[in-house]
């Protein structure tokens, strides 16, 4: 297989090859992002939780009441995606780099990479080599890259969700293992998630057991993180980064002109007019326009959006303990927004502050309607 490393250069030919190589890399990244990081790890992975919860948990069950806001509109938006976005000959196949192999790529990634225990943010960062476990460090992690906005802000959201869920679980299960293992509806829900929702992974040893309040709280925190914050992080910045297609082209239509075996005519054409060669590599006008329109829709918040920790989805009933815990959750998320605003003004954080740098706001919990590049809806709803 042909391989070559391209680097920035003062040599004109090498400089143009560097630009074209970046386009290829970003096109491949766009395909992986859309089909694995976004579609597979959020939209698809949440479906088994929704189906199992509605089949096995009564509407009055406390776990159902906790999870219900995080399932809003997901099945509907997934059905629409399967009819227009990820279907054969659909928008993804016609405009993104994997083309007709898109669903195969997503399926193989699920088979080889997806693990429930690795979908929790701390475990995800460790698996990707972005952090190491360190009990003495903040959040219990030592970062490989200290200025990593997704990790730095995401862990604030993760901790807030974890605190709320632990308080909720302790209200109904009171640190008693028997109350968890003896909850037949809860155990039936988790059994269906593992054995039917993820049937081809049902025998995997990494599935957590719902055998005590602590494991139940961690499992529910992971589900909420994926449905709300993980999806927000990979979805609502798409128009900002990909709406201007040269910044993140969705597909590379031509090969690198020096790829072996070298086509002499293609190389000569590149040397004669590298600007035209780069434009031919970019998405076509139709592809670029279609992707821009889709990313604009996907990155938009609806006027009736329900946000993580928002008071519009405060727990029902008059349980003062649960309501007090949710109010603390809401207050904590508001405080987190202030921390993120300060980080975005800190010039020492060069990945989120500086000339030409887009402030990192994807983990800010609340937003106005429209394309804002911030806001964490409760659910995977767009």
TrEMBL record:
* Domain of life from the UniProt record: Eukaryota
Q: Which residues form a coiled coil?
A: none
Q: Name one GO biological process term.
A: fatty acid biosynthetic process
One Pfam family in the UniProt entry = Lipoxygenase
Question: Is the Metal-binding keyword given for this protein?
Answer: yes
Known PROSITE patterns for this protein?
LIPOXYGENASE_1, LIPOXYGENASE_2, LIPOXYGENASE_3
Gene3D superfamilies noted in UniProt: Lipoxygenase-1, Domain 5
Q: Provide the Lipoxygenase domain boundaries.
A: 1-382
In terms of InterPro entries, this protein maps to:
LipOase, LipOase_C, LipOase_C_sf, LipOase_CS, LipOase_Fe_BS
User: What are the protein's GO molecular function terms?
Assistant: metal ion binding; oxidoreductase activity, acting on single donors with incorporation of molecular oxygen, incorporation of two atoms of oxygen
Keywords attached to this entry: Dioxygenase, Fatty acid biosynthesis, Fatty acid metabolism, Iron, Lipid biosynthesis, Lipid metabolism, Metal-binding, Oxidoreductase, Oxylipin biosynthesis
**Into which family does the record put it?**
Belongs to the lipoxygenase family.
Q: What is this protein called?
A: Lipoxygenase domain-containing protein
Organism of origin is: Aegilops tauschii subsp. strangulata (Goatgrass)
């Amino acid at each position: 297989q042909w391989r070559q490393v391209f680097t920035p250069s003062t040599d004109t030919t090498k400089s143009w090859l560097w630009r074209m190589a970046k386009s290829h890399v970003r096109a491949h990244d766009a395909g992986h992002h859309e089909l694995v990081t976004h579609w597979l790890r959020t939209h698809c992975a949440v479906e088994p939780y929704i189906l199992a919860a509605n089949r096995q948990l009564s509407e009055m069950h406390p776990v159902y009441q906790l999870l219900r806001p995080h399932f809003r509109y997901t099945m509907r938006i997934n059905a629409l995606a399967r009819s227009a976005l990820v279907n054969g000959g659909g928008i993804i196949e016609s405009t993104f780099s994997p083309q007709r192999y898109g669903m195969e790529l997503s399926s193989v990634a699920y088979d080889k990479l997806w693990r429930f225990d690795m979908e929790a943010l701390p475990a995800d960062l460790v698996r990707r080599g972005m952090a190491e476990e360190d009990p003495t460090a903040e959040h219990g992690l030592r970062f490989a890259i200290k200025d990593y906005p997704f990790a730095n802000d995401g862990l604030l959201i993760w901790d807030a969700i974890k605190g709320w869920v632990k308080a909720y679980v302790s209200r109904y299960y009171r640190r008693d293992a028997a109350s968890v293992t003896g909850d037949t509806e809860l155990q039936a829900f988790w059994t269906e998630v593992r054995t039917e929702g993820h049937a081809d992974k049902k025998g995997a040893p990494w599935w957590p057991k719902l055998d005590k309040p602590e494991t139940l709280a961690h499992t529910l925190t992971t589900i909420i993180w994926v449905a709300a914050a993980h999806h927000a992080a990979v979805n609502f910045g798409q128009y900002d980064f990909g709406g201007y297609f040269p910044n993140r082209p969705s597909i590379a239509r031509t090969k690198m002109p020096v790829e072996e075996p070298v086509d002499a005519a293609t190389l000569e054409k590149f040397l004669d007019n590298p600007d035209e060669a780069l434009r031919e590599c970019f998405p076509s006008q139709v592809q670029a326009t279609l992707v821009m329109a889709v990313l604009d829709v996907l990155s938009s918040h609806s006027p009736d959006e329900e946000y993580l920790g928002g008071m519009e989805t405060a727990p029902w009933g008059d349980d003062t303990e649960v309501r007090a815990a949710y109010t603390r959750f809401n207050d904590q998320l508001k405080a987190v927004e202030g921390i993120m605003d300060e980080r975005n003004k800190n010039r020492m954080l060069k990945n989120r502050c500086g000339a030409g740098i887009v402030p990192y706001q994807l983990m800010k919990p609340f937003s106005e309607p429209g394309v804002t590049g911030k806001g964490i809806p409760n659910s995977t709803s767009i």
